[in-house]
Amino acid sequence: MPLITTQVSTALDNNLKEVLKKEFGQIITTIPGKTEKSLMITFQDSMSIFLSGEEKNSAYLEVKLFGSAERKYKEILIEKLSTCITTYCNIPTDHIYITISELPEWGARGKLL
């Protein structure tokens, strides 16, 4: 039950959101046991993002995972997400921040899992 929260300075039309949704669905499978079927994604676009004291074309992604994953899989995940954002949003990799939170408890379908 992963969640990818996406904040970008660029505008995302519905077609681009659909492309990113599909790409993220494939990328999440980098983490063993995670699938597109259980993935939730949020998009916030056209944001003012300041980096190094200046407003820049930038992105911040937060990935939340139920449970934990080995570092090697998280490294691949970050690389693929960065490449995706660079490719489709034209944001340079040095303007992309990604955090990963591993959570021991998760609620879904009205229950604590």
Automatic annotation (TrEMBL):
InterPro entries: Macrophage_inhib_fac (IPR001398), Tautomerase/MIF_sf (IPR014347). This is Macrophage migration inhibitory factor (MIF).
